[in-house]
From TrEMBL:
PROSITE patterns to which the protein is assigned, alphabetical: QOR_ZETA_CRYSTAL
Recorded GO MF terms: oxidoreductase activity, acting on the CH-CH group of donors, NAD or NADP as acceptor; zinc ion binding
Keyword flag Oxidoreductase: yes
Protein name: NADP-dependent oxidoreductase
Organism, as annotated: Actinomadura logoneensis
Pfam (any one): ADH_N_2
Length: 330
């Protein structure tokens, strides 16, 4: 089998030379053997392979370690008493390799609720949790999604619309992506990075103010969004792309200066989103599958072919080349 390992920690944004493709025996031992079909390339990898310090949500990778990420695979063999049998599909976090040996409790058996196995890798549960739990949207409200062309953002606008939002505004750094957000993904307006960095720019697209913010970026866009919100606005803090995609630094710190007086005066609530609740995930999968089959939602993604394309896929993701999620089909 082949797997992709870290050769050296990256100073700045990782490059293909920080990784290597290694041939190694298919794992043999106690556990469920899974042949991976597709894995997710996610921007948080930048933190895990970076040379900097700082706390990360997952353990940092060291040179020689195999990369990690969400994957969907087919069970090849399973011991007696396992909760899965050969032929079952499972999701797990041991992507970036052709086979994975998983102990009980480190995988989730998948059913046929989603029409495409790759759709299980869509980060929509984060958008769904943000818009139903941390910053619930009410019918007719205006929703702002920063970083709207990313994996979460490209689903967040569609979910907001399905949940009853009256106006949905997104931000992105690419004019081509801005056009697709409006033409294909249900956004009423898509703003450039420059317009999104000022309250005046945001208010041109949302003249009645912003009620709900799904923030994937942080930095100046978060500051501007908070100035453009009305009273009792809800803000879901999802990501920190402004720091994760910055060439300098490690992506593990995302400082931003906020006017607390303004937040108190407008009774603004800010809440972080991790979307690790199994009940929320199950609810999202059920509704996502129904929306997909009814043609009410799309899963925007770029699909690379072959495990060897993984480092190139990560480089393109961090350079902002793609709209939606990035997956590698093995």
């Amino acid at each position: 089998m082949r797997e992709i390992r870290l050769v050296s920690r990256a100073a700045g944004l990782p490059r293909p030379e920080n990784f290597e493709i290694v041939e190694t025996p298919v794992p043999d031992g106690e556990g469920v053997l899974v042949r991976n079909l597709v894995f997710h390339v996610f921007p948080g990898l930048r933190m895990l392979v970076g040379a900097g310090d700082g706390e990360t949500p997952m353990p940092r990778l060291r040179p020689g370690d195999t990369l990690v990420g969400a994957a969907v695979g087919e069970v090849v063999s399973a011991p007696d008493g396992a909760s899965v049998r050969p032929g079952d599909l499972v999701s797990h976090m041991s992507g970036w390799r052709e086979y994975a040996l998983l102990p009980e409790g480190r995988y989730v058996r998948l059913d046929d609720e989603l029409p495409d196995p790759a759709a299980h890798l869509a980060p929509g549960v984060t958008a769904y949790s943000a818009l139903t739990r941390e910053a619930p949207v009410r019918p007719g409200e205006t929703v702002l999604v920063t970083g709207a062309a990313g994996g979460v953002g490209s689903l967040a606008g569609q979910v907001a619309r399905l949940l009853g939002a009256g106006r949905v505004v997104g931000t992105t750094g690419s004019p081509a992506k801005a056009g697709r957000l409006v033409a294909e993904l249900g956004y009423d307006a898509a703003l450039s990075r420059e317009d999104a960095s000022t309250a005046d720019g945001l208010l041109k697209a949302a003249p009645d103010g912003i009620d709900v913010v799904v923030d994937n970026v942080g930095g100046e866009q978060l500051r501007a969004a908070l100035r453009a919100t009305g009273h009792d606005a809800r803000v879901a803090l999802v990501g920190t792309l402004a720091s994760q995609l910055a060439p300098d630094g490690s992506g593990t710190s995302a400082p931003v200066e906020l006017d607390l007086f303004e937040l108190i005066r407008k009774r603004t609530s800010l809440r972080g989103v991790l979307a690790q609740d199994p009940e929320t995930r199950a609810e999202w999968t059920r509704r996502f599958g129904g929306w997909l089959r009814a043609g009410e939602i799309a899963f925007p993604h770029t699909r690379f072919q072959g495990i060897e394309s993984g480092p190139r896929a990560l480089q393109g993701l961090l350079a902002g080349e793609h709209l939606g999620s990035v997956v590698v089909e093995i």
